[in-house]
Write a structure and sequence with these properties.
- With 349 residues, this protein is mainly α.
- It contains 17 helices and no strands.
- It is rod-shaped and about 100 Å long.
Length: 349
C-alpha cells in the first residue's frame, strides 16, 4: 500500500530534499488534533501575509433512508402444528421468536432469526409429509423469508447504531495512532461475506454468530465513523487552504531583485506544518480508505437505504469518491507550492 504522494506528482514535484523531509518524518512527533494542525498552518500563513483565511465548507450530515415496512405475514401455525415440529427443533426457534424477547428483538436479531429459520426449514421439511398443510406452511414461510432477507439485512444497516453512525458527523476525529483498524476491517469483511451469501442464496453457509461478533467490534472502536469524518474534514481543509494560497500574488510575495523574507517565512510554515505533519496524516487516511472504502461500497452502495450523497462517496468508479477527493485535494494544494518554489526561486532548505 503506497502512502506517499502519487508517483506522477513526485516526478514533477518539489525538490527531492523536501520529499525526503516527508519520508523521514514520523507521525508520533505530533500529538495535537489533526484539524488543529491544519488550522495552525493556515493561521500562520494568513498572519504572515496579513490576509484573511478562507473558512472551510461546513460538512453536511449524511442520513440513511428508512427502509419500507414489510407486510405482515399471513402464515400462521396453530399450537398443535407447532407441537408437531418437535422432531426438527424448529418449534423452539419459532417459540423463542414469538415470546417477549423475540417481539422486541433488535434488527440484527431479527435478521439472525430469519436466517436460522431458513437454515432449519429444510431439515424440518424432510421430517414432514409433503401433502400436509404444515409442510406447505413451512415451505411457504421459508420462501417468503428468503425473498425478504436483503430487506432485513438493510434494516440492520439502518437501525443498528454500530452501522448507521458510520455516516453521521461526530466530534471525534481519527488520531495519528488510532486503534481498531484491523478489527474494523475484519468486522466489515464478515458483514460483506454475509451479504454476498444472501445475494447468492447460499443461506446454509451464513454464520449468524458472526453478525454479533462484527457489531461488537464496530461498537468497540467506532473507527469507520471517525475515518469518514476525518477524511471529509481533511478534504474541506485542503480545499480551503488551496483557495487561500491562490489569492496570494507571486509578484507581491517575491518581487524580482527584492527581499523575499515573507516568501521564506511561508516556505518554513509549509514545511513545518503541511509537509511534516498534515501530509503524513493524509497518507495514513488514504491507506485506511484504500482498504475500507471497497467494503463500504459492498455494504451500502445503491441499496434502497443509501442516499445519493453516500453513494457518491463510495462509488469506486467515480473520480469524486472519498478516496479520490482526498488524494485530489492534497495534489491540488501541493501543485500551488510547486509553482511557488519555481517562481520565487527559493531553496526549500
Amino acid at each position: 500500500m503506497n502512502h506517499s504522494l502519487p508517483s506522477k506528482l513526485i516526478k514533477r514535484s518539489l525538490p527531492v530534499v523536501i520529499l525526503l523531509l516527508v519520508s523521514v518524518f514520523t507521525l508520533t512527533s505530533c500529538s495535537k488534533a489533526p484539524s488543529s494542525i491544519n488550522n495552525t498552518y493556515i493561521t500562520r500563513l494568513s498572519d504572515t501575509l496579513n490576509t484573511s483565511p478562507i473558512t472551510p465548507v461546513v460538512l453536511e450530515q449524511l442520513k440513511l433512508t428508512r427502509p419500507s415496512v414489510l407486510s405482515e405475514s399471513k402464515i400462521t401455525l396453530s399450537i398443535v402444528e407447532l407441537a408437531g415440529l418437535t422432531r426438527c427443533r424448529l418449534n423452539v426457534l419459532i417459540s423463542e421468536h414469538n415470546n417477549q424477547l423475540g417481539k422486541t428483538a433488535t434488527a440484527a436479531s431479527q435478521l439472525k432469526y430469519q436466517i436460522n429459520f431458513i437454515q432449519s426449514a429444510d431439515n424440518c421439511l424432510n421430517t414432514l409429509d409433503d401433502n400436509t398443510a404444515i409442510y406447505s406452511k413451512i415451505s411457504d414461510a421459508k420462501n417468503q423469508k428468503q425473498a425478504h432477507l436483503m430487506h432485513y439485512f438493510n434494516t440492520m444497516l439502518f437501525k443498528e447504531p454500530e452501522l448507521n453512525r458510520t455516516w453521521l458527523l461526530t466530534s471525534n476525529e481519527l488520531s495519528m495512532q488510532p486503534a481498531g483498524y484491523s478489527d474494523t476491517v475484519e468486522a466489515l469483511t464478515q458483514l460483506v461475506t454475509i451479504k454476498k451469501q444472501i445475494k447468492s442464496q447460499q443461506f446454509s453457509q451464513v454464520n449468524t454468530d458472526s453478525l454479533f461478533n462484527a457489531l461488537e467490534q464496530l461498537n468497540k472502536y467506532r473507527f469507520s465513523q471517525a475515518l469518514i469524518q476525518s477524511a471529509r474534514q481533511q478534504i474541506a481543509l485542503n480545499n480551503s487552504a488551496t483557495q487561500f494560497v491562490k489569492t496570494i500574488s507571486f509578484g507581491d510575495l517575491c518581487p524580482t531583485g527584492k527581499n523575499k523574507k515573507e516568501a521564506k517565512i511561508i516556505s518554513n510554515v509549509f514545511q513545518k506544518y503541511y509537509l511534516k505533519q498534515i501530509q503524513p496524516y493524509q497518507a495514513q487516511l488514504t491507506g485506511y480508505l484504500e482498504v475500507l472504502q471497497p467494503l463500504y461500497n459492498r455494504l451500502w452502495f445503491e441499496e434502497n437505504i443509501t442516499v445519493k450523497q453516500i453513494n457518491y462517496l463510495i462509488d469506486e468508479n467515480s473520480p469524486n469518491n472519498l478516496l479520490n477527493q482526498l488524494k485530489g485535494s492534497a495534489v491540488d494544494h501541493v501543485v500551488w507550492w510547486q509553482k511557488f518554489y519555481k517562481t520565487c526561486e527559493i531553496s526549500p532548505i
